[in-house]
Amino acid sequence: MATDATPAAPLALLAELTHRCPLRCPYCSNPVNLTRVAEELDTATWARVFHEAAELGCLQVHLSGGEPTARRDIPDVVRAASEAGLYTNLITSGVLAGGAKLQALVAAGLDHVQLSVQDAEAGSADRIGGTRGGHAKKLDFARQVQEAGLPLTLNAVVHRQNLDRLPQLIDLALALGAGRLEVAHVQYYGWALANRDALLPTLAQLEAATATVEAARRDLKGRLVIDYVVPDYYARRPKSCMGGWGRQFLAVSPAGRVLPCHAAESLPGFDFPNVREVSLRWAWERSEAFARFRGTAWMPAPCQGCEHAERDWGGCRCQAFALTGDAAATDPACALSPHHHLLDLAVQEAAAATDAFTYREMGRSPAPVG
Ligand code: SF4
Ligand code: FES
What is the documented function of this protein (predicted)? Predict the structure, then answer.
């Protein structure tokens, strides 16, 4: 049993194996300063991290990036995670992952595949992903996953420029044999924040999408599970980001930094521990970075004493910083936040903006937003 000094075990580890990626999605949540290959952890260090994660109590690992299969050692990485006793979920664009590579991943013990699609229509999908021919490769990869007998989740990040085709995305998930579809409205960190004006949906689009999801959940019960991540910019209460800072989840960046969420590297004033220097247990249980926003004692007004405090944990620290410059502020997605009006302003600005993207690129810094 955990005490105040010993937090309960995390449920899952997000292993960001690399920031390399053949796609250039403008909504990527990776930090705008992407990690170069020379700084990436090696296979042996990842194997140690997986054993430490399992020993700490993690049950599953999400192998992500960038594109995790851009690493040549990806079968060895999967094998190490599987041998550590973790349930292995590959989060992939599918573009580099088919053929012999997929067979090697299956042989290494891969348990599950989560495949991203950018749209249901190939021309638009390739434009959003910034890679010609990418969508066709994804469809082919999904068929291979089905043939290999692996469970498949389709992940569709939705926004103003693809949301009207949500019914077709649901049809696509069914056609590809997915058991689960994640319909995730863009969360605005990293590259996504830089592209917010081109991505924010209108209220009418959001309402139509929500109705589509509700109807599909009813009609497809028992055939397809649909997860729905709603957009903060129209919310009155924030999401419980990561289930609360340092409560259920930890991430390791390509360069080995241990983070409470995938976007935390962009927060200033933190000395995030690194697996090259400390154990995962030390990072989780002892580091100041994980302790800083754990629980409710750190909360400012109006969170302090609020009846929702242990439900949403004050919302998202990364969003609070991105919008107010203060990671300890109440998430502006909350209607009780003194900064809530910033979301309305962003929606108004986006309505007047063009659909042009700033594509994700190594070594490129998009113009700051705000
Ligand atoms: Fe959540 Fe804080 Fe808003 Fe209360 S005031 S609903 S705890 S974000
Ligand atoms: Fe970092 Fe929400 S994404 S706390």
Answer: Catalyzes the cross-linking of a glutamate residue and a tyrosine residue in the PqqA protein as part of the biosynthesis of pyrroloquinoline quinone (PQQ).
The amino acid occupying position 251 is A
Q: Measure 141 CA to ligand 2 centroid, in angstroms.
A: 31
Contact between 357 and 126 under an 8 Å Cβ cutoff? The reply is no
Packed helices 134-148 and 100-107: angle between N→C axes, nearest 10 degrees: 40
Query: Is domain 10-369 in CATH 3.20.20.70, yes or no?
Result: yes
- Per-residue burial over 175-213, b if 16 or more Cβ lie within 10 Å, else e, is ebebebbbbbbbbbbbbbbbbbbbbbbeeebbebbbebb
Q: Answer whether 238 contacts ligand 1 (Cβ < 6 A).
A: yes
Q: How far is the CA of 245 from the centre of ligand 2 (A)?
A: 8
Minimum-distance ligand 2 atom for the alpha carbon of 29: 3
pTM of the shown model: 0.94
pLDDT in tens, 278-293: 999 999 999 999 999 9
For the CA of 189, the closest atom of ligand 2 is 3
Calpha distance 90→88 (Å, rounded): 7
**What are the residue ranges spanned by the domains of the chain?**
10-369
Please answer whether residues 187 and 229 qualify as being in contact, where contact means their C-beta atoms are separated by less than 8 angstroms: yes
Tell whether ligand 2 has an atom less than 6 A from the beta carbon of residue 263. Answer: yes
